């Protein structure tokens, strides 16, 4: 079934007014979209910031008349409409379309991330089967890619691993498939822990090799290798805790950091670690080092 899509170019202070008005005139969904590729990183807790130039997209059933929709919006808001446009769009299998767009990816020399619905391109390589549906971490984001490439270059045999902020479990599972005997995952989101367990099971990782915990339930232990792909703010704030998880002589890799945030994060870890040169990919960085 086709749909009528209405697009309004709004500012943040108009968002609530036009969202309510669109729903009032029969929109079945309303979506906010960045009009200028303007990133928003680490918003304040409890806030939902919008871009300074935002497009409001609303879907109506195909028999809706654009002229009537716009006329009713003017009546409800009592103002001239901002820049607006309407078009009919074809329906499609959105899940199938998304799945088709997520392809196997190679990281470093040995490691492939393979969607669970795909065949492995190199069956004899280290293939991590992933269902990315529940939590962050698919390999497509530069921060995950930076961490996977780093793990691929490490000698992980006989090394314990902690994945701090494990999300989908992709980093811990990669470490296990690359030779680590055990990895521990922790995340503040119970759904992330569920995704990690599911992905571990998909890769035939026994539960005792990859236990996952909420932070308050995490056992007090150190690891030879710690990876934390979260955000710069928490990495700085939690530097003492993250540092305490790394054994003397152990290795640390941090990501989720924008290039302009690198110096602040490096400063938070410089006393405790001999840091490597910062690695960068598409405006994001990885900071790694060895515990003094």
From TrEMBL:
Location of the protein in the cell: Cytoplasm
Enzyme class: transferase
Reaction equation(s) it catalyzes: L-lysyl-[protein] + 3 S-adenosyl-L-methionine = N(6),N(6),N(6)-trimethyl-L-lysyl-[protein] + 3 S-adenosyl-L-homocysteine + 3 H(+)
Record's GO cellular component terms: ribosome
Domain of life: Bacteria
UniProt KW keywords: Cytoplasm, Methyltransferase, Ribonucleoprotein, Ribosomal protein, S-adenosyl-L-methionine, Transferase
UniProt-listed InterPro entries: Ribosomal_L11_MeTrfase_PrmA (IPR050078), Ribosomal_PrmA_MeTrfase (IPR004498), SAM-dependent_MTases_sf (IPR029063)
Pfam families, A to Z: PrmA
Main location: cytoplasm
The EC number(s) this enzyme carries: 2.1.1.-
Family statement: Belongs to the methyltransferase superfamily. PrmA family.
Identification of the protein by name: Ribosomal protein L11 methyltransferase
Gene: prmA
């Amino acid at each position: 079934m086709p749909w009528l899509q209405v697009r309004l170019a709004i500012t943040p202070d108009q968002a609530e007014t036009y969202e309510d008005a669109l729903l009032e005139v029969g929109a079945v969904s309303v979506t906010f979209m960045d009009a200028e590729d303007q990133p928003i990183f680490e918003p304040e807790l409890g806030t939902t910031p919008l871009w300074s130039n935002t497009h409001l997209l609303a879907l109506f059933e195909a028999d809706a008349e654009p002229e009537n929709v716009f006329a009713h919006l003017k009546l409800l808001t009592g103002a001239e409409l901002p820049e607006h446009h309407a078009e009919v769009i074809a329906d499609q299998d959105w899940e199938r379309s998304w799945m088709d767009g997520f392809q196997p990816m190679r990281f470093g020399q040995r490691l492939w991330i393979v969607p669970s619905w795909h065949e492995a391109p190199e069956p004899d390589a280290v293939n991590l089967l992933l269902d990315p549906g529940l939590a962050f971490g698919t390999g497509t984001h530069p921060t995950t890619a930076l961490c996977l490439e780093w793990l691929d270059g490490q000698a992980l045999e006989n090394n314990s691993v902690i994945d701090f902020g494990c999300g989908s479990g992709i980093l811990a599972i990669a470490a296990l498939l690359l030779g680590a005997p055990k990895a521990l995952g922790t995340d503040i989101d119970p759904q992330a822990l569920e995704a990690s367990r599911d992905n571990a099971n998909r890769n035939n990782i026994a539960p005792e090799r990859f236990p996952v915990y909420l932070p308050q339930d995490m056992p007090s232990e150190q690891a030879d290798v710690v990876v934390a792909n979260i955000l710069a703010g928490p990495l700085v704030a939690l530097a003492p805790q993250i540092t305490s998880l790394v054994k003397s002589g152990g290795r640390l890799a941090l990501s989720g950091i924008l290039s302009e945030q690198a110096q602040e994060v490096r400063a938070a870890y410089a006393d405790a670690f001999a840091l490597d040169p910062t690695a960068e990919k598409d405006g994001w960085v990885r900071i790694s080092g060895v515990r003094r």
